[in-house]
Amino acid sequence: MRLFRFFGVMVLTLLALMVTLAIGADQQPVPPAETASAAESLQARRKALEQRVTAKWDALIRRDFAAAYSFTSPAYRKLYSKERFQSTFGNKVGWKRIEITKVDFKGDDAATVGLNLYVVYNGFVEGKPIDMKTYVEEPWVYAEGQWWYLMEN
């Protein structure tokens, strides 16, 4: 009886081992080259997005609203004119520079970009502008092969 039990345990152990090997055979480890390629792809996407964000803000700093408008999403531009876009900005704030602090991808076609925005505000005290820094998060979408600012109205 002991011999029968011993062989029964051995058979069950071998079956469990075979099932484990069969399941593991379908799950191939990702080669390091593919992992590096994915990281490079993510880095390239981030760089392209950061360039677009910087270019948009460079246009706003120059108060070139036509150029800044060109970074808004195609859907926004179908609904709103350049004049409407420009009218959303007042004249009390002067943008000085930005500093991108965060890029958070939400899949392949959306991201949130966090940035420090350095401004001069001309509205509190007569004749005395105030330098300020604020944090802004902007939504961006990827469409038609390009990153676009998702302007919210």
Highlighted features:
DUF4440 domain-containing protein; alpha+beta; 4 strands; globular; 153 residues; single chain; Nuclear Transport Factor 2, Chain: A; NTF2-like_dom_sf
Description:
The chain has 153 residues and is α+β, with helices and mostly antiparallel strands. It has one domain (35-149): Roll (Nuclear Transport Factor 2, Chain: A). The protein is built from five helices and four strands; from the N terminus they run αααααββββ. It has helices at 2-26, 32-61, 65-69, 74-79, 82-87; strands at residues 93-105, 110-125, 128-143, 146-149. A four-stranded antiparallel beta sheet has the order 1-2-3-4, with helices on one face. β2 and β3 form a beta hairpin. The longest helix is centred in the N-terminal third of the chain and has 30 residues, at 32-61. The model is unreliable at 1-26 (pLDDT under 50).
Helix/strand layout:
Blueprint: H1 2-26, H2 32-61, H3 65-69, H4 74-79, H5 82-87, E1 93-105, E2 110-125, E3 128-143, E4 146-149
Antiparallel strand pairs: 1-2, 2-3, 3-4
Got a strand count?
4
**Distance between the amino and carboxyl termini:** 81 Å
Low-pLDDT windows of residues: 1-26
Sequence of secondary-structure elements: HHHHHEEEE
Task: Tally the structural domains.
Answer: 1
| CATH arch. level architecture | Roll
**Count of discrete alpha- or pi-helical segments spanning 4 or more residues:** 5
CATH topology: Nuclear Transport Factor 2, Chain: A
Which percent range fits the helix content? 40-55%
Structural class: alpha+beta
Strand content: 25-35%
Strand order of the biggest β-sheet: 1-2-3-4
The biggest sheet amounts to: 4 strands, antiparallel
CATH class: Alpha Beta
Name the overall outline.
Answer: globular
